[in-house]
Records
---
Amino acid sequence: MKDSVDAQQNEFRKERYCTDQIVTPVVTVEQLIEWNSSLYINFINYEKVFDNVDRKILWNLLQHHSLPEKIVTS
């Protein structure tokens, strides 16, 4: 599974938590404000992106890449 999940992905990985994904940008923004630096942030609404995905194709791709069914169906 390690090869299937990007190193930046914290969910479903031992001793990595979603809260880390929340705290990191907050700390980064605070530091950049303190340093008087510019910052550009882009947020992607994946719910809207995946709203039009053929779920059967997505399911087949996930299976092809050996993601455990337990994760795919959660």
---
Amino acid sequence: MGKDVGGLGFRDLLIFNKALIAKQCWKLISRPNSLTARVLKGCYYPNTSFLVAKPLPSGSMIWKGLIWGRDIIEAGSRWRIGNGSSVKIYGDRWLPRPVTFKTVSPQILDEHTTVSDLFISPGVWDMTCIRASFHVDDAEAILSLPLSSSDLPDRLIWHFEKSRDYYVRSGYQVGCDWMSQASSSRLGRLNDWWNYLWRLRIPPKIKHFIWKACHHWLPTLVNLARSGVKTDVLCSQCKRKAETTCHALWGCPKAKHNRTGCDFLVGIWWGDESHFQDLMVLCANKLASRDFEIFCVLLWRTWFKRNQKVHGNWCDTSEDVLGWSVCFLNEFQNTNWPDEKHKNVAQATKMNWVNPDVGTFKVNTAAVSNGNHYKTGIGVIVRDHKGLVMGAITQPILSLYSPQVAKAIAILKGIQFAMEKDLLPTVIESDAKGVVELINRGVTPCSDVGVITTDILALLATRPISIVYSSRPTNIVAVKLAKIASLATSSKIWVNSAPLSVENLVRGDYTC
């Protein structure tokens, strides 16, 4: 079980083996021309695809194993839309929305309708048809998918990796989620608690002590009796109640004495028969992080003193447990997290926009998402070697794209604008480092951004245009234009000028 669900991070070997086999399934799908894929297709699914192939009683152990591992691929994959001709609107998994990836709207169109029927033209969604045929959630999910003007084939991608390629690590996680039978609401609350525990700045041995206590794995007398050990369950310290985990660490008079001076625990009441983990979740929600860390150390020290009494027949009753816990925690934290003021902090230096070479134009592009209005704003500005503005664009798009896709679209718009106005040769600057690296490597990944980089690379093939990365401070004018676009209702183009709202920023960049 993972640490976020109450385990210690050890893998479930059954699910892990399934994720490993799913890797081989992915190779059959992504490399259909390989020898292995062609042999298996000829034997088991000559007229269909691997995803819908049926298990055969006479199939080999290899084939049965692949069918067993295919469940994970089915749970975590979806179609990336290219030309949309091979993906059915109803039934196929193509929306970027786990866990079904399918539309939930009532069926209005014909069941055999493909995604390509939702295009006005290649690369352009029919917004009127989409909003009339689908529920608003489905419509927004559809319009968030980027389209290419090129005739790209539809492609199966792995949703849970940025590269959209299958990795065993994410396949294992999908398998764990798929196999889990726990209530999602309670599981979500407990996930928050476990993550909070493992992030505490306390010694690992105390984290594991709390972890064992939450699972009732401390050797209290009640837990020993449940395990078959013949013993009296009456608390060995107070001789009043059964020694449960909650009683030993919270309800026993000795435990209460150890909490003397803990003002941050005033008002928290908990019964001896209650679940200790629920007590910890309650305290974690009510206490400040520092106070909760002290509380965890105090519980660990309380258990230590209980063991001194039970196994050593002695206990230092004069010890200030709270004071000891605070000193212990301070020493641990000061050793492992020294004061930030002792670190050397590099002074931030102001970064300015740099003029292009003489005879070259520079195009800065940016994109900003507006979740409230479900829009993406595109900003483009073109300047010459003197820093003079040659043109600018603000373009709102009625779709909410991921940041990487939106910035790739902004680069594409910048290239198209420079070509339309014959502002060549051109240097395109963007603060999307990952997208710039993909373009300069000539890579068209199978992710959604790959749909846009395909069009960009096609334009760059025969034009004197280069793409470079620029930090956000040097791209501030384009960012401002993108913010304006995200609030606008229509596109605007300026020639040899820029909006009044960015003139001061342009003058700040001017370095002739």
---
Amino acid sequence: MEYNNLTKWLKNEWFKLTIIIIILLVLLLLGIRQKWDRQESISQSEKSDVLMVYNQVKGALPKHSLYCIPETKSYCTIDGCIADKPNVFVIIGQSPEGEAFLGRCDSKPCDIYPSNLEESGEVVTVTTKEPHGMLFKSSYLDSSYVEVVTLLTDAFISTGQCYKNENS
């Protein structure tokens, strides 16, 4: 008897239920969009912070042809990944001796690593000559990059955009 009452009620109220479901879906989508907009504005703010640091210290940096500004950063463990604040920019260049290098920099001096650059199609991969648990890849198509830096079994993954240094 309960089942029959429920089916009768559903038949009579289907229009109201449909409207309620549509309203709930719209509210859910609006909430997701607002969260996305908030994250995007935080990311732009953090990018501006790192770019500001780059502009403040670029006169003291080694001569470099490329600088890369992070837009996102994640900290990953075996339990998963969480968003982290981007705070390190990357420079790529050649030493006076003609050796390629990758520099990881913040408001303190850069850590500079002699590196190997390998081009394959539209991607350049940079690895340090000594093993430091780092991998850097950049696309010639859109100047995007990804950097993976490991610390024991944890990893920091940054993504962003690379720019030509006009002063090199």
